Amino acid sequence: MATLGIMWDRMNTGVFKWQAKAIRAAGFDKLLLFKPDHVNPRYRTIAGWVYENNRWRYEPNSPYPAIIYDRGIYSGRMLREARQVKEYAGIPFVGDWLESDKWNIHKKLAVNSRLRPYLIPTLLLSHNQAVHTMLQKYNKVIIKPLGTHKGKGILKLSYMKGKYVIEENKRKRIPLSKEGLNGKLAQLRSKRNYLVQQWVDITDTANRVYDIRVLIQKNALGQWHLTGMGVRLGKAGNITSNLATEGSAKEIISFLSGQFGHTRALRLEQKLRELAFEIATQLERSYQKRLVELGLDFGIDRQSHIWIIEANAIPGKEVFKKAASPKVFKQSLQLPIYYAGFLHNRLSGGRVRR
Question: What is the pTM of this model?
């Protein structure tokens, strides 16, 4: 018997109800929830919440787990602590980190000729001219932080008849002169790195931005499995569709049928499925890292062309709670636990009880 660790940036045991219920079937007898800064490498112990015999208890000196499933999104000191755990603790992790740098992920996908037609034209905002080049070609662009999460910090910039207009969720449209725009871009670049992308019209018939989250995960056999799809529909007037920015969730086939008709909706759903497997295979091969799950965001324009927006290695699953069946949501939480059991069994030479 063995302990499965879940490393997270918080200590809320209630979030992991379904994961806890899956540990026995996955071959574990305990679940240990902990933060990276609760690891004591000197004594090889961890302070955290232990789930055993259907209940949680706090354990200040729990032995190291056999394997760790990382669900954290870290920054600052906690990010450094998480890296130390990953690099020096000597505990296997279910999946490797996939960098949150959207530019490098874009480049990894762009080398695949089957994926290239679905990638949004993108430049690294290394200088102001990158924005002007894209505006001259497309008139509207999105400026996106490389490590953005939940749609934070995303801007829409338009150029019409010699005038620039910048938009952000929950804020008024702001007109800018060229000098004002250059000042704004310099200010942005001084704080963090950004991408500039063509603005693709991924709005519905009511002019609300939407995208499609596709969740693909490893299963108990170690194979990629498409768990579910859900539509995230943005609030009217917003430039992003994230649920965190007041968006809503919709079931995919009924929503796409309303946009494109039922037959085309089914074809689009099948193409999204094919692209999800291709992306997962490409990223794992290109990075030479073991991945456990990916949340893939797609847009579909008015001409029904699919666009790849981004890939997330630690995906949120709230859309499936709201737009899919309870079974899909439960599966989205438990599949990584079953894969952890498969991987631990393999790494220990098949000596783990199944």
Answer: 0.91
